[in-house]
Amino acid sequence: MSPRTIGMSDSLYDYVLKVSLREPEILARLRAETTAGPGGAMQISPEQGQFMQLLAELTGARSYLEVGTFTGYSALAMALALPADAELVCCDVSEDYTNMARRFWDEAGVADRINLRIAPALETLEALQGDGRQFDLMFVDADKENYGAYYEAGLKLVRPGGLLMFDNVLWGGSVADPDKQDADTLAIRALNTALQGDPRVSLSLVPIGDGLTLARRR
Ligand code: CA
Fold it and tell me: pLDDT tens, 66-87?
């Protein structure tokens, strides 16, 4: 035992999944189909999906804004966790990936709750601001170079007391490797550094999946 976050060996990770994962069959099927397809490694891990579902329950969220929907795993997980009258707005630029998402949302009977916007997300976020929209919960898992812009937009679109979640904030460990100076790594590092000193949010970087930052708007 040690007073720091434990390292995760393969066998320990398998154990975590074995004793705690409650992945519905439809999510497992969506995950398997995504993993077998192009970009499969981009989807979130099942234990992260379950963690986000728990956060949705804890916060009593009734509205959810997502930037980067891909094949729809996180949106479906959240739709299953939110109340039946919840609204989900999902932003993506890919018709191909989100066609798979729509197919599973239909099958799960939640498609009517999900408002999918195919456009550059910053345009959609600006339009939502123009409409005076406010959300309880936001998840960002899209192009890393725009993370800073998504954060600023999110602070306007998430209500005070609402929660912003940013995926891939550890970026496979690159954020702590001084030799890594690519644009994505620099953008994630910049967000991580900026959030630490930002008094507008309460903060926790949770080392689940590839790192999930939780920022609650004050
Ligand atoms: Ca991701």
Answer: 999 999 999 999 999 999 999 9
pTM to 2 decimals?
A: 0.97
Question: What is the 139 CA–ligand 1 centroid distance (Å)?
Answer: 10
Q: How far is the CA of 205 from the centre of ligand 1 (A)?
A: 15
By CB atoms closer than 10 A (0-12, 13-18, 19+), residue 150 is: buried
Domain 10-217 in CATH 2.60.40.420? no
Segments making up each domain of the chain, as ranges: 10-217
DSSP string computed for 54-66: HHHHHHT--EEEE
Q: How far is the CA of 171 from the centre of ligand 1 (A)?
A: 9
pLDDT tens-digit map of 112-136: 999 999 999 999 999 999 999 999 9
Residue with tokens 């904030």: 169
Residues lying with their CB under 5 A of ligand 1, a single-atom ion: 141, 167-168
Mean pLDDT of the chain: 97
Distance 157 CA to ligand 1 centre (A): 21
* Cα 66 to ligand 1 centroid, rounded to whole Å: 12
**Tokens at 126, concatenated:** 């600006």
Q: Cβ contacts of residue 102 below 8 Å, gap of 6+?
A: 72, 111, 116
What number of other Cβ atoms are within 10 A of residue 167's Cβ?
25
Integer Cα distance of 91 and 101 in angstroms? 12
Question: For residue 113, how far is its CA from the centre of ligand 1 (angstroms)?
Answer: 23
